[in-house]
Amino acid sequence: MKKASAILLLFAALLLGDTQVSLEDNLVLVDASSAMPAMPDAVLLRFNIEMIDSSGTALLANANKRVKEIEKALRKAGFDDPCAMCGRSISITSYHQDSQRRYRIDPPGFFLLAEPHRVDKAVDVLQKLSSKDRSLHISCNDIRFLVTDVAPYITELREQAFAQARRDAEGAVLPEGRQVGQLLAARERHPSWVWSRHTKYHTGGPGIDDLKPLSPLWLGYGLQVAYGQPDSVKDFNAGFEDEDFVSTTTFNRTSITAQGQSSLLVVPDAVSLHFDLIVRDAITDSVEFFAKTNRFYAEIREALEKNGIQSLATLDDTYYITPETYGAETTFRIDHYLYLTLNDPSRVDRAIRVVESMSEPEEGKQAFIGWVEYKVTDLESYLPKLREMAFKDARTRAEEAAGFYGGNLGEIKGWHEARITPGDSWGHYREWDVAEGNNKLPRMWLSYELQATYKLTRDEE
Questions:
Q1: Global confidence as pTM
Q2: Which DSSP letter does residue 78 get?
Q3: Count of C-beta atoms within a 10 Å radius of residue 84
């Protein structure tokens, strides 16, 4: 119970960012950190493309076309191969204006630039494109500077954190007249961005004076270290399951485990369309009302098949019924949702056009697009490349740690992998691998992670 309490205290210290030393019998657990300024080597621009039109179909068709136009404009302005992506989830809002239905599309977009000192120029390019077209509005709502290459900083960050850990451990046991003992194990975090309150640890870093227009980021590093007797190391290893740690090294043993990560930018192979269905009528018989809704659904299915669109069409399991009173007459309205899944994303525009053409407002039937979500169903075809990149990443991390600890990394002993995760997010520590394919479609990130265990030998062995 005492050991569990000590571990909880240590986790609390990690969240607060302060040094924490926990004493338990012959085991001393230390959480230490270091930080140093690092010059950004890339910048991420996150923006929204807002367009308004009377046709939801036309908007969706133009969304990714706009992304390509922006990418072309950035290249013309002298940016080398900007990496562009339109988010996989696209929201389309419909509303009435001047007795006509209007649509507003608001897809998120991302650009990664390897020239962070020219971020002002990139924003200027976006603003000029937006000013040329009244129906288009581009807003940069997030500018994020990144350090994608942490290699020049990691050795010094690691040395400072270990030195701090040793000092804190010795200070903690001094009042009791104890010895710190041997270095038994260490766990390392990913380097990450921290606030400048860590200036007490370091005052300079590589390249700080190279790019005057940029401000350095504070690159932080954290680790947990265990000191004590060799038979206490099991307590250290068993107590921590925090995913933030990327490598664990245990001394007086024979292995080192490190995480490897990878990502690919790929073209989706499926798309899900979410439609809003509205049925209005003065019918008070609920059975007949539901029958009218189902007939509307059947008509849509038949129209899709006639237009050669093979899809999985399903209805939501919830019906929302609302009374509407106009003068002396009361009608009822059913709001429902139709979901279409297409295995051919290039037919999205045709599917939207067919479904929306089935609307007959005078008959109390309306259908309009509300949400478009792109997907990757064939994940296995990307697994070999993702796995290769992740193993390379894990090996690099393990070799860095083994060299610092005075050991040599040997052959792989075992590994296990997590699932491939699709998403919109960008990360650092990635190899930017842009997939070829239909450029009219948005591109999506596939992220992958594994843990690999390697044989570790000490120099004195």
A1: 0.60
A2: T
A3: 22
Give the 3-state secondary structure of residue 432.
coil
Is residue 276 within 8 A of residue 446, CB to CB? The reply is no
> How many other C-beta atoms can be found within 10 angstroms of the C-beta atom of residue 409?
19
CA atoms of 106 and 60, how far apart (whole Å):
10
Amino acid identity for residue 126 in this structure? L
Taking only the tens place, the pLDDT of each residue in 366-413 is: 888 877 888 888 888 888 999 999 999 889 888 877 776 677 888 998
**Within 10 Å of residue 365's Cβ, how many Cβ atoms?**
20
Nearest to 440 by CA among 80, 67, 110: 67
- The Cα–Cα gap between 303 and 4 comes to 63
* CB-based contact 368:273 (threshold 8 Å): no
Q: Is residue 6 over pLDDT 50?
A: no
At residue 330, what is the residue type?
Answer: T
Per-residue DSSP letter, 214: S
CB-based contact 346:441 (threshold 8 Å): yes
Q: How many CA atoms lie within 13 A of 52 on its CB side?
A: 10
Which residues does 185 contact at the CB level (< 8 Å), separation at least 6? 225, 226, 233, 236, 237, 248, 249, 250, 251
Handedness of CA 74, 116, 124, 425 (dihedral sign): positive
DSSP states of 313-361: EEE-S--EEEEEEETTEEEEEEEEEEEEEES-GGGHHHHHHHHHHT-BG
Q: Exposed (0-12), middle (13-18) or buried (19+): which is 212, by Cβ within 10 Å? A: exposed
Burial class (CB in 10 A: 0-12, 13-18, 19+), 258: buried
pLDDT tens digit string along 233-271? 554 555 444 555 656 666 556 788 888 888 887 778 888
Q: Which two tokens stand for residue 319?
A: 């019906």
Q: How many CB atoms within 10 Å of residue 456? A: 23
Q: Is the pLDDT of residue 197 over 50?
A: no
pLDDT of residue 292: 81
The single residue listed with the structure tokens 């640890």 is 201
User: pLDDT value at position 362?
Assistant: 80
Helix (H, G, I), strand (E, B) or coil at 56: helix
Compute how many other C-beta atoms are within 10 angstroms of the C-beta atom of residue 106: 18
What domains appear along the chain, each with residue ranges and CATH number?
A: 2-39+148-263+381-458 (no CATH), 42-145 (3.30.70), 270-375 (3.30.70.360)
